[in-house]
Design the sequence.
């Protein structure tokens, strides 16, 4: 029999079938990897409260004594300080959603992984609760609140948080969440309900289309989606036994459609917020903007801050594409040394205005989510030191909330990590235990106090934010002990993508980035300060976000957040436009991810990425 030509193969159905099949196998494997608490006979009377532990449960969930004892014994035996308990009758879609988000085999070891759970019962030590500022109180939380709690507690027990199935625990009659409840639960996990609802509805439409138009292959793909709950969660050996699994499987397409529509409707409404805080924030911005934005810029300089040449040309002019705040910014390039710098640059008052609500405050949570996805980059930075040093002390300058230090402990478990930053996030990093000591302020101010105390100083995507990068290098030279190492990572203004993408190239990052130094300039500056460069990486430092970042910046430009407190205020038209842009942007983001994947592979193969790393040793006199 002659095989059909490739042009007649129903590739959409084949790809859907392969993706659903892989997802089903993965979910089944992950389910088997979740530990199950052993059955322990209950004591004669009452539910004990194990010393140092607190069990927080959702309304309607009543753990028995055996479950509490088993959970405490398991957590102590495994060295856990936070344990999310999964009820044995966890509803099917809740279970599948959790298995999509969490790989139990890697969850505990991944120090940057977001805290995930079922939202019904969380066991935690009183010490972790106290450090996280959580007062359990007497009120029973709802599942969304418990999901948010698990996410927070994982930050304070980065390598001591786990999941376990509790056979004796029941959901207390709580089933699949409705539209508003589901949107609240997604937000509690740091997930965008509107985008996920749109993706769910788009996936259902695609499945329906292939089922109708692509014959048995399309029907097979739709059928696999239909049967997935029973294929993953069914069977006598399944550790989870969702109530009404058969009904949930039979009604899955209709229930998924209804859930997607209700979630989309709920996501379109106002996000719950603190009205008083929002009003105060908006009033502060109105007061700042009343005098205009020109006052946030210093006079334009006529020469290059790196080499002093007056051969300057405009490289790019852009508005604030990060937050959509008013203002327009210019980056100029020196024709002599090719240094790129903001000209005119922001004043100190301007820096405060444009940084506000980005890394902390209103935008802090979203920024934290982005930083939490950079585990591979953090490990690459930490591993760059392996052939050269075994440091006992490490200062991370510009540490933010300490994400790098947290991740680097996997590579350097015996190293003391300290952090320095201008934002309050460094104090939070200290409370979480991600850094031992957190220094709040400008790095040059600490140069004399910390002189000669560190074996490694790192500046990862920090120098480009500073007003005087050469003074920062002077401070690093002072803080390092002789023979110590300075590790730096920066955007590469010589990247081909900077020319190709133009103003939408994410590393321009206006108005925050003040200086972008070519690698040759940095090597020369380090040599002038008594350093020898021992390693340099371009491809491995590439950040795979060129196309994705361009789409994100374009979407922000077309439709800024209607709820931004520095804007004119939300209107129905602005909300409708924002929703339309998000929907239209979804396929663009998908295409951007594919392009960035190809681009990243090429960058690492050709050593021509959009960033570079440099490791330099301080010469011994």
Sequence:
């Amino acid at each position: 029999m002659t095989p059909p030509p490739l042009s007649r193969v129903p590739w959409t159905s084949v790809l859907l079938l392969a993706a659903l099949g892989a997802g089903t196998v993965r979910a089944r494997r992950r389910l088997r990897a979740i530990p199950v608490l052993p059955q322990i006979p209950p004591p004669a009377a009452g539910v004990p409260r194990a010393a140092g532990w607190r069990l927080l449960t959702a309304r309607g969930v009543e753990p028995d004594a055996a479950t509490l004892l088993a959970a405490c014994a398991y957590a102590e035996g495994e060295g856990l300080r936070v344990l999310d308990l999964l009820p044995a009758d966890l509803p099917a879609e809740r279970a599948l959603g959790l298995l999509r988000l969490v790989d139990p085999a890697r969850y505990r070891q991944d120090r940057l992984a977001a805290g995930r759970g079922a939202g019904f019962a969380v066991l935690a030590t009183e010490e972790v609760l106290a450090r996280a500022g959580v007062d359990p109180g007497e009120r029973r939380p709802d599942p969304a609140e418990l999901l948010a709690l698990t996410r927070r507690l994982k930050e304070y027990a980065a390598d001591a948080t786990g999941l376990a199935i509790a056979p004796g625990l029941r959901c207390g009659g709580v089933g699949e969440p409705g539209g508003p409840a589901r949107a609240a639960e997604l937000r509690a996990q740091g997930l965008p309900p509107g985008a996920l609802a749109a993706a769910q509805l788009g996936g259902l439409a695609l499945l329906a289309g292939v089922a109708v138009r692509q014959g048995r292959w399309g029907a097979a793909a739709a059928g696999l989606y239909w049967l997935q709950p029973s294929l993953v969660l069914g069977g006598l050996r399944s550790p989870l036994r969702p109530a009404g699994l058969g009904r949930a499987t039979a009604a899955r397409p209709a229930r998924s459609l209804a859930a997607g529509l209700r979630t989309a409707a709920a996501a379109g409404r106002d996000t719950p917020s603190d009205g008083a805080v929002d009003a105060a924030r908006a009033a502060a911005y109105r007061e700042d903007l009343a005098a205009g934005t020109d006052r946030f810029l210093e006079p334009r300089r006529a020469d290059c801050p790196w080499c002093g040449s007056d051969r300057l040309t405009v490289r790019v002019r852009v508005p604030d594409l990060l937050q959509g705040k008013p203002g327009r910014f210019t980056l100029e390039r020196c024709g002599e040394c090719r240094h790129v710098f903001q000209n005119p640059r922001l004043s100190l008052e301007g820096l405060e205005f444009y940084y506000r609500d980005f890394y902390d405050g209103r935008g802090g949570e979203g920024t934290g989510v982005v930083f939490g996805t950079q585990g591979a980059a953090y490990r690459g930075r930490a591993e760059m030191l392996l052939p050269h040093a075994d440091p006992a002390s490490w200062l991370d300058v510009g540490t933010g909330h300490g994400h790098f230090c947290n991740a680097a402990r996997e590579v350097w478990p015996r190293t003391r990590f300290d952090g320095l930053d201008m934002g309050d996030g460094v104090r939070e990093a200290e409370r979480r235990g991600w850094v031992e000591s957190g220094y709040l302020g400008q790095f040059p101010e600490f140069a004399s106090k910390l002189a000669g105390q560190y074996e490694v100083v790192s500046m990862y995507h920090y120098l480009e934010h500073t007003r005087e990068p050469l003074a920062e290098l002077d401070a690093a030279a002072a803080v390092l002990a002789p023979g110590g190492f300075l590790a730096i990572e920066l955007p590469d203004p010589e990247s081909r993508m900077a020319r190709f993408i133009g103003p939408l190239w994410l590393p321009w990052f206006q108005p925050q980035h003040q200086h972008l130094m070519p690698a040759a300039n940095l090597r020369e500056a380090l040599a002038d300060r008594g350093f020898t460069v021992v390693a340099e990486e371009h491809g491995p430092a590439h950040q795979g976000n060129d196309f994705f970042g361009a789409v994100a910046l374009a979407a922000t430009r077309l439709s800024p957040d209607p709820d931004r407190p520095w804007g004119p205020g939300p209107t129905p038209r602005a909300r409708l436009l924002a929703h339309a842009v998000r929907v239209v942007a979804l396929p663009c983001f998908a295409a951007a991810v594919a392009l960035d994947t190809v681009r990243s592979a090429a960058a690492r193969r050709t050593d021509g990425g959009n960033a570079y790393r440099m490791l330099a040793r301080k010469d011994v006199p």
The chain has two domains: 9-272, 361-543+608-618.
